Amino acid sequence: MSHNGFDPFNYSRPIFGAEPRISRGISSQGDALVSATADGIDLNVIWDEWIDVLALWNEERTSIASLLSYFTTLRGEAVPQTLSQMKFEEASEFGVPASGRATATPLELGYPFTDFDLRLATSWKFLRDADSRQIAANLAEAMEADNRLVTGSVLRRLFDPEPGMNDDGRKVYGLYTGTDGVTPPPYMGVEFAESTTHYFTTETPVLDSRDIESAIKAITSKGYGPAAGAQLVILCSEFEADVISTWRRGEPSRDATAAELTTDSGATGPIAKFDFVLSASAPAYLTEETIVGQQAPGTFNGLPVYGSYGEALIIKSNVIPPGYVAVVATGGPGSDQNPLAIRQHPNTVYQGLRIIPGAGSYPLQNSYLQRSFGVGTRRRGAAAAIQVTSGSTYTAPTFAL
User: Fold this and answer.
1) Has residue 268 been placed in a domain?
2) What residues form DSSP beta bridges with 26?
């Protein structure tokens, strides 16, 4: 387990839902493909197609991560959690009013930092016989591993309430948990209980409108969202997106459970406050209804928008594990208004993905890929995570990095 509370080598669940695969070893002469089949079909198209697929995966994951985070070189930040309120007093003819002074009780938010690397090794015989596209495919897959590492780390921090410690001994928080003694600061005169959490369970086997509306309210009631110039986004898998697409204003968003019917035989599921509306990029469809207001755009930050529910855009993606939903107030790609921070080294030479040549050239040619970073939470109230489960205890999903 790493020092920031996350296990970077947990391969229990791949980010895209396929079986975990760890590709290791040295590319040898036997790995070099023959150039064509007996009927003249070029086998290297396999490598071209694989590189194209990786590029698409990387683009989607990078776009998701950029909506949730921004880069910083800070080791941590002291964020005000409660503000004392100045107060006017009735003026007298000769009296001098009391002096006001802004004071704040900050919360130390730590950002972790870890070094990661990967080696690519090829034999001189492989390089002699391999097509250049095979060599490029090795690098493309290594870059995909880097993309998976960064995006998976961002998503893990978003969905995992477990705190950690960074190299400075500062605590690395998730969203509000209601169990760490930290109370959200008041906003617009509204105060919150110390038990306030942004990790929810549906307590039913099916997601309903009340779950999403509660998550949105948890965010907007603390000052995040449209009022602050941010866009509300619902990130979910295709399965949960299909559930949301059935919701209609004034109608039950799910059937009543057996427990609800036990106490009230006429009970229904939660009544939706809004209509799900397909985005502008949706396939053509017939309807007798009229859309009032602005239809959701076809894309947001390069990601296809499925539709909208209230003020929130719905983006479905396989990077979000089935059974989980994230509601986020995003300021846009890489905005410092986003809930998470990706810490980089202050020296620009050590930022981003670095490719380092190996020392020797015979009989093996080595190259190294290296990245140093860590993910922490900057705005604990700017997002909420939902687990679809009949239980009342939230359990974080796992991501393969």
Assistant:
1) yes
2) 121
